[in-house]
Design goal:
5 helices; alpha+beta; 21% helix
Length: 254
């Protein structure tokens, strides 16, 4: 199983998704997280039945998603009640009782890019439109048909070492959930993600190839939420990112 389980109880499954694995695939025969976890739960139920504990059809509620090229932490629900509560938190309907997500993005920063000072956060607000029939979104003027407001905040987490370094690791918080939002907004601001062939610039693609980076450098590194039954705040974080190995030999941050 490619999915890594970080925590589990009777209500939730907290998992790490590697880059390249779909959360839920419509392609026959393609591996995805939902299929892997349903098989895992079914196997657990069979084991309980064999031990005389009884069994039932396993339930798995999909609460939120990550794009297939993106790695990171996700929470799944094991009961309909937990799914409803976690989905409500993920929607951000309540200011004080919601799910929080933090991402790490390794971006290319060329000459003249405006970066926030260390310890400060900068907000980006744009309007995005998903192009019909394409797996693609663009920044468009407000008021254009299909345009939706997109907002995120970011700060500088680490900066590459050396005079030749053009990459910066950003900590990103989403305030809205739009199609390819982080990738599109950062690219529009002159900071395309390394490894992003769809939204990257010619310079960022060349730089990615030089570093040996072949996957999108975006990771959902921290997830916090309130347990759907106990109400206890839960937080999960990872510190190793898919691009860490590629940068290890350069002495660069990431």
């Amino acid at each position: 199983m490619k999915t890594k389980i970080l925590a589990e109880d009777s209500q939730i499954l907290v998992c790490f998704k590697p880059a390249g694995l779909a959360v839920q695939s419509a392609r026959p025969g393609e591996a995805d997280m939902v299929s892997e976890l349903k098989n895992y739960l079914a196997a657990s139920q069979r084991a309980k039945k064999a031990s005389g504990s009884g069994s039932r059809i396993p339930y798995l509620g999909l609460v939120h998603r990550l794009d297939q090229p993106v790695s990171g932490i996700l929470v799944f629900a094991k009961t309909p009640k937990a799914a409803a509560e976690l989905s409500r938190q993920a929607s951000g309907a309540e200011k004080e009782h919601h799910m929080e997500k933090e991402y790490r993005a390794l971006v290319y920063a060329g000459e003249g890019v405006s970066l926030p000072e260390a310890g400060t956060e900068r907000e980006l607000v744009d309007y995005l439109r998903k192009e019909p029939g394409q797996n693609l979104s663009r920044v468009v003027p407000a008021g254009i048909s299909g345009a939706k407001r997109a907002a995120l905040s970011f700060c500088m987490a680490e900066k590459g070492n050396g005079t030749e370094s053009r990459h910066i690791c950003l900590s990103v918080r989403l305030h809205t959930g739009r199609h390819h939002q982080i990738r599109v907004q950062l690219a529009h601001a002159g900071m395309p993600l390394l490894g992003d062939t769809r939204y990257g610039s010619e310079q960022s693609r060349e730089y990615s190839a030089r570093l040996g980076i072949r996957t999108i450098c975006l990771c959902a590194c921290r997830l916090s939420f309130f347990h759907p039954v106990t109400g206890k705040r839960m937080e999960f974080e990872i510190r190793e990112y898919p691009w860490s190995e590629a940068l290890a030999g350069t002495g660069s941050a990431g």
